[in-house]
Write the structure tokens for this entry.
Amino acid sequence: MASTRAGGEGDRVPADAPLLSDLMPWSAAPLRLGRSWVLAPDAASLTARWDRLVRAEEAEREALFGPTRARTPQSAVPALPGQVAGTGQVAGTGHVAGTGRFVRESGRCPEPLRVLHGPFDEQWLIPDHRLIDAARPELWRVAGAPQVFAVEQGYVPGAAGPALLVSALLPDGAPTAGRPGRIRPLYRRPGGLEPNVTPGLTALLSARHGREVAPEEVLAWAVAVAVPSPRGPVVPLAADPGVWSAGVELGRLMTAIQLRGAHGGVRHRLPGGRRPYVRATVPDRPGSLAYDPAEEVLALGTGRVAPVPAGAWDFMVGGVRILELWFERRAALPEGTEPGTLAAIRPPGWRREWTSELLDLITILSLLAELEPRREQLLTAGLLTGPTLTRDELHTTGVLPAPPSARRPASVLDHHEEGPDGQLALI
């Protein structure tokens, strides 16, 4: 069978394999915040930044805000989807965003929202449409249980790391390196309605495998086998029922690990003797991060965490080591941050919850690294030597091309949204 290399680590896939965009046609571009100060590793910094901004005089407020072509303090924009029309209230949260022009804002900071910032990094965002250049409202409309977002990772030729990750939280789609990929929700409507799977695909797979194939299996399979390419993740489709079932089982496990117990799922843990623990308290200002492979110790300044498997330390996305990136975002100001700006408002020292989050991240990366041999076996022994469904066959059977409507977000929803200055938005 003809094959070609498609991305990092020398993964090989059939040359005629479909792309993820063939299987899950609706997607959105990553969020474009426009100003870095609306996102932070801790919620307290966001409320402090907001308070500093709304207390400023008009001229200073303009400079602190960081106006762009898309957003200024005078911009009139609707509320983010998921808010209660006429009140600006986000269901289930505390104080919420308004829809009046920000130049007149004097209230409290909207309740920060937990989001996924790039791969594996859970941070906080001010959920205020007036502050975000391109919030991708179509993603906010379908967020919440049981939604799962498939997030394509930036393509970097020859770089190590997965092509596709998943999240229960709203992802911003920020890449570690390379050109950012697309965000593909599993469901096109709130409440897990209308799967984002190309019409006719599950019927074809069901016929080939001799049993009903659920749309959720398509995503699980993609998580297990997707490999990077310049055109987006490539997802070879097994025609062998045994290979398909093995891939779906692996993909479901990889997905559950990444979802961290969301939507009522199981939060996976390492066995007791292998769980990472804090051996020495992380100092207020850990200036460096280092790893001792012989002792399996992660050193944050004088702080010590162990055991940390080598697989967690070596885990990369787009060729970037995840633990180092996560630490850098918390231990120091981002490069280019100027004193006196809102982004410079940060915690005075290392926050205790970051240590807990680090232990959780080490666990996730360790578990995924342990599954990599199974994934490699599936790709090499299962897909290179076994039969697959090609793009040509998908075209011949009428599954491809996906209809244009499948590539657009659902247009009819069952709730109202608040427009600029409290007006009712019609959608």
